[in-house]
Amino acid sequence: MICATDLHKRFGSLQVLGGVSLSVAPGEVIAVIGPSGSGKSTLLRCLNHLEHIDRGTIQIGGDTLAQSHGGAAAHYAPPREARRICQRMGMVFQHFNLFPHLTVLENLIEAPLTVKGLKREQVVPVAEGLLRKVGLIDKRDNYPARLSGGQKQRVAIARALAMQPDIMLFDEPTSALDPELTGEVLRTMRELAQERMTMLVVTHEMAFAREVAHRVIFMADAQIVEDRPARDFFADPHHPRARAFLEHML
Ligand SMILES: Nc1ncnc2c1ncn2[C@@H]1O[C@H](COP(=O)(O)OP(=O)(O)OP(=O)(O)O)[C@@H](O)[C@H]1O
Ligand SMILES: [Mg+2]
């Protein structure tokens, strides 16, 4: 579903991805963990083209988003093609990023209407179905400001799903929430995983990573230093940075 090879990314003199490779199979749930500044968000943002990589190859569902030959700078697909490829991925951010001037329902249907050019009568029933799924159909006509953090994040998940992505990318979806609100968001994510959605989740929720993720990718200093089945990783982290991190987190 995702095949990324030898990704390099710098911000000025700072190397943020120093030759990162990963592949994700359909239905796989991967937890991306690691210390602050290790490049986790940048990795996700590069995969769905919110950031440009300097070098490397990114393939999504068999289509090439970016490609490097012989260490040359990455060459991207033309803009239309790149947009089509990236539409296969939905992204959920730490701070929800809902449109404040749109109601919950309008937040869900905005992209299907404007980006996909679908008709209102097609998208409204789908959006309502998704709101039912995340337990928020009664908030259909509310504005985001009237929702709790957990509710906002569930709307953000439903909004990403409304574009019918093949892959969902989550960047610390519960870090901005009070502890009592994280459970409802994790429950929604767990249900998605059970439906075999392909998911890449940057998270500090070690219990969630341990229970739901099939694989753990541990990043440190712009590299993936471990990429192993979650069960093995938590039982016996190999890399000293991973050991130190887990000792700190658990
Ligand atoms: N747009 C940017 N311009 C310059 N530097 C950036 C930019 N975005 C990120 N960085 C830097 O790149 C490094 C990696 O950032 P990134 O956000 O990917 O880390 P992270 O692993 O997600 O950390 P955290 O756990 O704190 O979210 C950091 O040192 C950060 O300051
Ligand atoms: Mg981050």
TrEMBL record:
Family matches, as InterPro entries: AAA+_ATPase, ABC_ATPase_HisP-typ, ABC_transporter-like_ATP-bd, ABC_transporter-like_CS, MetN_ABC_transporter-like, P-loop_NTPase
Gene3D superfamilies reported in the protein's UniProt record: P-loop containing nucleotide triphosphate hydrolases
KW Metal-binding (keyword) present: no
GO terms assigned for molecular function: ABC-type amino acid transporter activity; ATP binding; ATP hydrolysis activity
Domain of life from the UniProt record: Bacteria
Pfam families cross-referenced by the UniProt entry: ABC_tran
Domain ABC transporter: 2-246
Keyword Cell membrane attributed: yes
Classification via PROSITE patterns: ABC_TRANSPORTER_1, ABC_TRANSPORTER_2
Keyword list, A-Z: ATP-binding, Cell membrane, Membrane, Nucleotide-binding, Transport
UniProt similarity note: Belongs to the ABC transporter superfamily.
PANTHER family: AMINO ACID IMPORT ATP-BINDING PROTEIN (PTHR43166), L-CYSTINE TRANSPORT SYSTEM ATP-BINDING PROTEIN TCYN (PTHR43166:SF38)
Name the UniProt record assigns to this protein: Polar amino acid ABC transporter ATP-binding protein
Organism (species): Comamonas serinivorans
Classification lineage: Bacteria, Pseudomonadati, Pseudomonadota, Betaproteobacteria, Burkholderiales
